[in-house]
Specification:
- The complex is a heterodimer.
- By secondary structure, chain A is of the alpha+beta class.
- In chain A, 50% of the residues lie in helices and 19% in strands.
- Chain A has helices at 3-14, 16-34, 75-83, 100-105, 141-172, 178-189, 197-211; strands at residues 39-46, 51-59, 69-71, 87-89, 113-120, 123-131.
- In chain A, a hairpin with a 4-residue loop joins strand 1 and strand 2.
- In chain A, helix 1 (3-14) packs across helix 5 (141-172) and helix 2 (16-34) packs antiparallel against helix 5.
- Chain A starts with a helix and ends with a helix.
- Chain B is of the alpha/beta class.
- Helices cover 27% and strands 21% of the residues of chain B.
- Chain B is built from six helices and eleven strands.
- Chain B has helices spanning 31-35, 89-100, 119-132, 147-162, 232-249, 255-264, and strands spanning 44-49, 64-71, 74-78, 105-110, 137-140, 166-170, 187-192, 201-202, 210-213, 217-221, 225-230.
- Chain B has a nine-stranded mixed beta sheet, with helices on both faces. Chain B has a two-stranded antiparallel sheet with strand order 10-11.
- In chain B, a hairpin with a 3-residue loop joins strand 10 (217-221) and strand 11 (225-230).
- The chains are: A alpha+beta, B alpha/beta.
- Chains A and B meet through helix 3, strand 4, strand 5 and helix 5 of A and strand 11 of B.
């Protein structure tokens, strides 16, 4: 069973994408609260388009930003993604060219930010940013470690989300094995039906499994 | 070096004299001996990053700017890159190095800015090119997590070490495997919370070898700007700058000796007295 198929069956059964998206949203909500920040966001790398996409946003910009894209090497987020190094910048207004266009297109120009790459195994999946913490709090290395822990959690969630999306693509696809995923999905949908068709189907599948 | 090439694998009794070292080590190695009066003059430092803004007030003159890119299977080295710094990060690192070693030679090798895809390969090629040029110090405030580049990077790091090019690389403070900072042939750097640019510590629990200033560092940024930044990215050029000072005063030191001197005058060793 290929990874995609396995994931397809799981996703078909569980309807996972929404759940993982909710998890990402919860991560940015908590990050924003813990760091007392104005906003926090998670960017997902779309490798095919070589772009970063706003995947979850808490605080300022949360209504309009999700789904917006920009080139993967733009601004601080792009640098953090490519260099795989976390960065903290206390006052971005002093940087005349700091992704001004990106920031202005989002309607929010932050004064300070922490950005950390989302790394899972050997892949860089995206970036977690925390924007505009209170000016009077000095940033500590302990907070950097905390951000790293959050990033780890976010990276796992992002990985699950990507798998769910690949899985749904497989479910919708025309590949030889897509039928198995569709059958799994149908079986799950019929879980509460009592006309016996589900049981018959499961018996047939058990026989098929023996045959294979 | 002696006129006659020494056998690489053994040392005969007659050959001992031929490996006499040009530098007399003092009984006690002090910071004054190590870099007292040094300006960085004569040391060639390469910043492998997002480019450097030439003429930035905190950076000064950049001696050469090079850009590495890959098109198809071909590695393209633009030895007269005029894109400057595409992010600001390389300028920040260069500013830190020049603040410590104002008269060092600075060369920018840009390996970032052309998108995420292929960035690992560009990093590898950039490092290869920089090592071929024989720079004294290469500052790498970046890393890759791609396993397929690890062994190639390892070879490059060892090549640099044996040809007297000191690689100074940012450690990761996240629970992931990344390279080249984990290799013992490079100097890996993490951050401490102090504010003295010459304050640094030897770490007896590797893989991170040294901790240098990396919190609330005022750095140069694009457009002649300045930013206050935190990250191992900024601790690394502090050590690169100190190494440039060391080499400007003691150009004969090998990476092994450089690491030894750095250890001996670290704040938690001899330099803390």
């Amino acid at each position: 069973m290929s990874d995609d198929l396995r994931a397809a069956v799981a996703a078909g059964v569980l309807g996972a994408e929404e759940q993982f998206q909710a998890l990402l949203q919860s991560i940015v909500d908590v990050a924003r609260a813990i760091f007392k920040a104005k906003a926090s966001s998670i960017f997902l790398l779309d490798e095919e388009a070589d772009e970063l996409v706003f995947e979850a946003v808490a605080g300022e910009g949360s209504d309009s930003l999700v789904g917006q894209r920009f080139p993967s090497s733009t601004g601080i987020a792009g640098f953090v993604l490519v260099s795989r190094q976390p960065l903290v910048i206390e006052d971005v207004l002093q940087d005349p060219r700091f992704s001004r266009e990106t920031a202005e297109s989002t309607g929010f120009v932050p004064k300070g930010l922490m950005a950390v790459p989302l790394l899972h195994d050997e892949r860089a999946l995206g970036v977690l940013e925390v924007l505009d913490r209170p000016q009077d709090t000095r940033f500590t290395l302990a907070e950097m470690d905390l951000l790293g822990l959050f990033a780890n959690q976010a990276a796992i969630a992002l990985d699950l989300l990507q798998r769910a999306r690949r899985a749904q693509a497989a479910l919708a696809g025309e590949g030889d094995l897509a039928v198995v995923a569709r059958v799994a999905e149908t079986l799950e949908q019929q879980r509460d039906e009592e006309d016996g068709s589900r049981e018959s189907a499961l018996r047939l599948l058990t026989e098929l499994e023996k045959l294979l | 070096m002696s006129e006659e090439e020494l056998p690489a694998w053994s040392l005969s009794a007659a050959a001992v004299e031929r490996i006499a070292l040009p530098e007399e080590w003092p009984g006690e190695v002090t910071r004054d001996w190590a870099w007292g009066g040094a300006t960085g003059a004569g040391a060639r430092v390469c910043v492998l990053d997002s480019g450097i803004e030439d003429g930035h007030p905190l950076v000064g003159k950049v001696q050469q700017s090079v850009a590495i890119s890959i098109e198809g299977d071909e590695v393209i080295v633009d030895e007269k890159d005029n894109q400057g710094d595409l992010c600001g990060h390389g300028t920040a690192c260069a500013g830190v190095i020049r603040s410590l070693a104002p008269e060092c030679e600075l060369v920018s090798v840009r390996v970032l800015g052309a998108g995420y895809t292929g960035s690992g390969a560009v990093l590898l090629e950039g490092l290869k090119w920089a090592i071929e040029q024989g720079y004294d110090v290469i500052n790498m405030s970046l890393s890759t997590t791609k396993q397929k580049f690890a062994s190639l990077l390892h070879e490059l790091a060892d090549t640099a070490y044996f040809q007297r090019t000191m690689l100074v690389a940012s450690a990761h403070n996240m629970p992931v495997e990344s390279y080249p900072w984990r290799f013992s042939s490079v100097i890996s750097v993490g951050s401490h919370e102090g504010h003295d640019p010459l304050e640094y510590y030897y770490n007896p629990a590797p893989p991170v070898e040294f901790f240098a200033r990396g919190v609330d560092v005022e750095v140069a940024w694009n457009g002649g700007g300045r930013l206050v930044c935190t990250g191992n990215s900024f601790a690394t050029p502090h050590v690169a700058g100190i190494v440039a000072l060391l080499l400007s005063k003691h150009p004969e030191l090998t990476p092994f000796q450089l690491k030894s001197v750095l250890y001996l005058v670290a704040n938690n060793v001899g330099g803390g007295k």
